[in-house]
Amino acid sequence: MPNAIVVGARVYLRPVEVSDAETLAAITATETENFMYRGRMPYSPLAFASGIRDGYTQVPPPSIAFAVCLRADDRCIGMVGIDGIDFVNRTGNTFTDLGPADVRNQGYGTEAKHLLLAYAFDRLHLHALRSVVMEPNTRSVAALMKQGYHAAGRLKWVDIKDGRYHDALYFDVTRADWLAARDAWRG
Amino acid sequence: MRSILRVRGFTSGRWWQATAWFDSPFPINADRAETWLKEAHANADRPNRLHFAIARVADDAVIGGVTLDTDYRKARLKLHIAPWLPDADALRAAALRLVHPWIRDDLELMTFVLHIPADQPATIAAAEALGMVQGVRFREGIARPGHRVDELLYQALFAAWAVRDA
């Protein structure tokens, strides 16, 4: 587990390396489901590499991204992270970008998200986290609710999909919400 | 009723006023403020982040700042008021009453969003009087001395652009 920061039973989180850019661009470019985005986009690994470099230039950073890796073979299967971190109000926005399709529906995403929330609440001592989901993305909504997030509301006309404006759905989670959800997930 | 405030572009030479308009709890000195403002105004061709000064009509003193992040269809508005002023809520409400019709009628945006702490009744009342609707309530999103308050997201939805719900 090279450079691991948070370790779970099957996955671990480590800093994103510039050498991950090819993998992350490929995950995004080969995404087979695009109901959660406006449409497909052929991302360049050069852009990912630039973003990864920029992400380590400020301390404390305004955003933190982790590579999600499988403990079994150290394979990077995507990213989780927090952006828009406000160290005064102690809030931030979480994001998840996992692929390829063969790693889905195996619980890796839920485990990675619990590791991210543990890092956010117990190491950064953030008070509340938010997440935003485009309205058609019911899969992410279901995942957030399992992770302890509560519906916070919606903003209208946020983005276009299939020729129509769609709303963005907002969620928030406090440490107490997350602990209850994590206990339920662990059984 | 004439406003006691005006919103205008930034001008050179008043860098020492930066804490009035710089939207951060961290200090900024005059030297850094000059550099920051010049960098923020490097491009006049529809920049995606617009900065304006909020000034008192009576003496043109800068008492706040407007930041508008926009793709020229939607926007996110921030209104910062000088931290030494005791009536920041009322001043923010007055600034919103100036900026709202400008965004609607001159920029002709479809919509914009303003984050308002739940303990700012004058700004909330101004937003609602202008027809803005509360779309989101983030629980305990704002830190205050010894307690926390909710953070509200109010959205202006301009009727000229109304679209059918998906």
Structure description:
The complex is a heterodimer of chains A (187) and B (166). Chain A is α+β, with helices and mostly antiparallel strands. In chain A, 29% of the residues lie in helices and 34% in strands. In chain A, a hairpin with a 3-residue loop joins strand 1 and strand 2. With 166 residues, chain B is of the alpha+beta class. Chain B has four helices and seven strands, in the order E-H-H-E-E-E-H-E-H-E-E. Chain B has helices at 18-21, 30-40, 88-107, 121-129, and strands spanning 5-8, 49-56, 62-70, 74-81, 111-117, 133-144, 147-157. Chain B has a seven-stranded mixed beta sheet with strand order 1-2-3-4-5-7-6. In chain B, a hairpin with a 2-residue loop joins strand 6 (133-144) and strand 7. The model of chain B has no long low-confidence stretch (mean pLDDT 94).
Topology of this protein?
The complex is a heterodimer of chains A (187) and B (166).
Chain A: E1 6-7, E2 11-15, H1 21-29, H2 45-54, E3 64-70, E4 76-86, E5 91-98, H3 108-122, E6 128-134, H4 138-146, E7 150-161, E8 164-174, H5 175-186
Parallel strand pairs in A: 5-6
Antiparallel strand pairs in A: 1-2, 2-3, 3-4, 4-5, 6-8, 7-8
Chain B: E1 5-8, H1 18-21, H2 30-40, E2 49-56, E3 62-70, E4 74-81, H3 88-107, E5 111-117, H4 121-129, E6 133-144, E7 147-157
Parallel strand pairs in B: 4-5
Antiparallel strand pairs in B: 1-2, 2-3, 3-4, 5-7, 6-7
